[in-house]
Amino acid sequence: MARQRVLVDMLIAAAPDDVWTALRDPEVVGRWFGWDYEGLDAEIRLIFGDAVTADDAARTLSWPDGDRFELEAEGDGTRLRVARTHHDEFDGAYDPVDEGWITFAQQLRFALERHPGQERRTVSVHGLGLGPHEAPLLSELGLRMLGDDPVGNAYEVQRADGSTFTGEVFFQTDLQIGLTVADEGDALLVVARTPPSAAPPDGEVMLVLSVYDVDEERLAEVERRWTAWWSGPEEADHADGADASEGASAGTGDASRH
After folding, report:
1. Which residues, 6 or more positions from 250, have their beta carbon under 8 angstroms from its beta carbon?
2. 17-70, pLDDT tens digit by residue?
3. Of the candidates 205, 246, 240, 204, which has an alpha carbon nearest to the alpha carbon of residue 223?
4. Within 141-195, where are the H helices?
5. Domain count, the chain
6. What's the CATH code of the domain at 105?
7. How far is Cα 33 from Cα 210, in angstroms, rounded to an integer?
8. Which of 118, 135, 162 is the last residue of a domain?
């Protein structure tokens, strides 16, 4: 039997039954998994339906490639562990599936702890170049120094147009940071980097903003505002609706497990 490594080990402030429902009900899975794109519903049906073996009594999910979700009651919450097959030959190398599961597990925790029962919409962009060392994109976006802030710390980011957004650091790993965004009704912004070794020459970044209980008009406003921030106002002015960024219609691709 292949050795397993624990990729995610987190406590979610929600009852085991609620976490299990969030993993088994396709409608609820859509409130945290991935991001909006045309094929999301089909991807959810495949990954959490056709491709998975579920043990309702043990509350475990297992996939043929060795990936595994385990739930365990702990106090008033639920311990979630995500395990994957150990790969000795690539130990320490960038693994897009690892990074995808980390993103999605944190989005799951955020949805259950901060917005239980609420519908989610997302605005996202994928594959933005991080830029050369002398002109890094994350510095231009006001994000580069946030990696020094501990989880739970308050932050403020100033956009190029002088506007700001604020919140707290929700999670942080070597390649990802999750920020709550108070200005968007307690949204979650995930910033996930791909290192230059996996995306030459300078690396890339994905940004996913999850907002809750917004109508189409409000979503369009959110999309224009955030697209202008990461793409620049000129590009945002030429964008419209779901085409506002290349990532807005992109599938989860390499960031998901299938």
Report:
1. 37, 124, 126
2. 999 999 999 999 999 999 999 999 999 999 999 999 999 999 999 999 999 999
3. 240
4. none
5. 2
6. 3.30.530.20
7. 10
8. 118
Sign of the CA dihedral running 133, 103, 219, 184: negative
Rounded to two decimals, the pTM is 0.89
Where among 91, 118, 145 does a domain terminate? Answer: 118
* Residues 164-183 pLDDT 10s: 999 999 999 999 999 999 99
- Amino acid in the structure at residue 95: D
Q: Does residue 176 contact residue 193 with C-beta atoms inside 8 Å?
A: yes
Tokens of residue 229, six digits: 């921030």
Question: What domain range includes position 150?
Answer: 119-250
Q: How far is CA 249 from CA 60, 98, 236, in A?
A: 31, 22, 15
Q: Give the DSSP per-residue string, 16-65.
A: HHHHHHHHH-HHHHTTTSS---TTHHHHHHIIIIIT-EEETTTTEEE-TT
Residue 84 and residue 68 share a domain = yes
Please indicate, yes or no, whether residues 31 and 123 belong to a single structural domain of this protein: no
191 part of a folded domain: yes
Q: Which residue has the tokens 């979630």?
A: 80
Shared domain check, 128 and 246: yes
Structure tokens at 206: 């994905």
Residue 143, classed as helix, strand or coil, is coil
Same domain? 80 vs 198: no
The residue among 111, 106, 123, 231 whose CA lies nearest residue 177 is 106
In a domain, 256, yes or no: no
